[in-house]
Amino acid sequence: MSKPQAPRKVGDKEALAVATQIRGSAQKLNLVAGLIRGRKAGDALNILQFSTKAMAVDARKVLASAIANAENNHNLDVDALVVAEASVGKSITMKRFATRGRGKSTRILKPFSRLRIVVREQEEA
Q1: How far is CA 66 from CA 6, 29, 30, 40, 90, in A?
Q2: Strands (E), 1-125
Q3: Residue 55 — pLDDT band, cuts 50, 70, 90?
Q4: What sign does the dihedral 22-26-28-34 (CA atoms) show?
Q5: Helix (H, G, I), strand (E, B) or coil at 1
């Protein structure tokens, strides 16, 4: 006898991908996530591919994972996928110290962020 299967975190026509340890601040990652919210999945991949923002590389990996999850795990049509949600949050923060003049030191914060992308199959109108 095994545990009952966990309920899905998203709807029937949706697929999800989450990255929990993206190196960089949530504010910078949210700027990149704002570029793809509500867009078709193929267009969003192109936008992230040619974006000059450094966080776009990690966001593109998460979006590609969400598209692959939709295709392989949920049998959704890749051409009809839309980025339904791209939410950003804070993760851990590494604390480091840097030496300064006169025997002092200051704290350096190195933040990590979370990115959650949900793609939804949209019916063509």
Answers
A1: 19, 17, 18, 13, 20
A2: 14-23, 81-99, 105-121
A3: very high
A4: positive
A5: coil
Q: How far apart are CA 71 and CA 23, in angstroms?
A: 28
Q: Scanning the structure block, which residue is given the tokens 């591919």? A: 49
Domain positions in the chain are 14-121
CB-neighbour burial class of residue 22 (10 A; exposed 0-12, middle 13-18, buried 19+)? buried
Compute the average pLDDT of residues 16-35: 98
Specify the length of the chain in residues. Answer: 125
Three-state DSSP class for 82?
strand
The pLDDT of 33-60, averaged and rounded, is 98
* The model scores a pTM over 0.85: yes
**What's the CATH number of domain 14-121, 3.40.50.1110, 3.90.470.10, 3.30.70.1340, 3.90.870.10?**
3.90.470.10
Task: Please compute the mean of the pLDDT values over residues 110-115 and round it to a whole number.
Answer: 98
- Residue type (1 letter), 54: A
Asked whether residue 2 carries a pLDDT value surpassing 90, the answer given is no
